TrEMBL record:
CDD domains with a match to the protein in the record: TM_PBP2
GO cellular component: plasma membrane
Name of the protein in its database record: Carbohydrate ABC transporter permease
Keywords carried by this UniProt record: Cell membrane, Membrane, Sugar transport, Transmembrane, Transmembrane helix, Transport
Length: 288
């Protein structure tokens, strides 16, 4: 009896360990978000002390949010939010459109002089290049084209930086689609373009959504390009977060409010299309 009890205790402990580790990881990941959210509701004097529980450790206030949404910073906040939405959405859409066509070409056609594998490796290598290396040439180019502090410049640069990722991941998705389906459609009279638009793209829809989400996230979170190319009209939320200070000191309450505002739209979007993200990430994972 004693040995059985010991075994049951050991089994219970072993079963409990994964939950304990998972809880620690979740707390570790979510605590900074919680701290940022509650800091946005603190008075400036409360941000200097480690207060964690609203209505217990400190009295929440809407002063910062009122200033951002209705007060002095209203115009800047709305403009930064709209700029973030426009640049992220348009650049992600361009990446999926161009990357889908390029990925399909690399998946379905065989090139002789420059092998498909070499082309794919070259495309991926562009994504590995640090963006800071190209900022000065890009600034000179955009200044010559009079595109500094415009959304067009940021959209073009984000598209150029994120396009290799879209091409690579969409090529893998098209590789998982049996080519016999398109061949059967072409036997029935479809052209190669029809097979691409009516057969391959619908089947690769989860991959398109995943690519679009990742490209949107990269563009939404970018600071370096916006900091170099924008100063007034084309600023985005990361720019507002990075410059959330006054002449006296960092305004942690303002930075936290802009940070909270920046994570809300992606969270809502991820919740709405969660099933497509899961399908896209697991597409082709099981073969048999």
């Amino acid at each position: 009896m004693g040995s059985r009890r010991n075994l049951s205790k050991k089994s219970a402990i072993l079963d409990f360990i994964p939950y304990l580790v998972l809880t620690i990881v979740v707390v570790f990941l979510l605590f900074p978000v919680y701290w940022m959210v509650i800091t946005s509701f603190k008075r400036p004097i409360d941000t200097t002390t480690p207060t964690l529980i609203p209505f217990v450790d400190f009295q929440p206030t809407l002063r910062t949010w009122t200033d951002i949404v209705f007060g002095f910073n209203f115009y800047q906040s709305v403009r930064a939010l709209l700029n973030s939405v426009i640049t992220a959405t348009v650049s992600a859409t361009l990446c999926v459109l161009i990357g889908g066509a390029a990925g399909y070409g690399l998946s379905r056609f065989r090139f002789e002089k420059w092998k498909n594998r070499d082309i794919a490796s070259f495309v991926l290598a562009q994504r590995m290049m640090p963006p800071a290396v190209a900022l000065v040439p890009l600034f000179i180019m955009m200044n010559y084209l009079r595109l500094i502090d415009t959304l067009i410049a940021i959209i073009l640069i984000h598209t150029a930086f994120n396009l290799p990722f879209a091409v690579w991941i969409l090529k893998d998705f098209f590789d998982e689609i049996p080519v016999e389906i398109e061949e059967a459609a072409m036997v029935d009279g479809c052209t190669r373009t029809d097979a691409f638009l009516k057969i391959a793209l619908p089947l690769a829809a989860p991959g398109l959504v995943v690519s679009w989400i990742f490209c949107l996230a990269f563009s939404w979170n970018d600071l370096m390009v916006v900091l170099a190319m924008a100063y007034n009209k084309a600023v985005t939320l990361p720019w507002m977060i990075a410059t959330g200070h006054s002449m006296r000191a960092l305004e942690w309450w303002t930075i936290s409010a802009y940070g909270t505002l920046a994570i809300v739209p992606p969270m809502i979007l991820a919740a709405l299309i969660q099933k497509y993200i899961v399908r896209g990430l697991t597409f082709g994972a099981v073969k048999g």
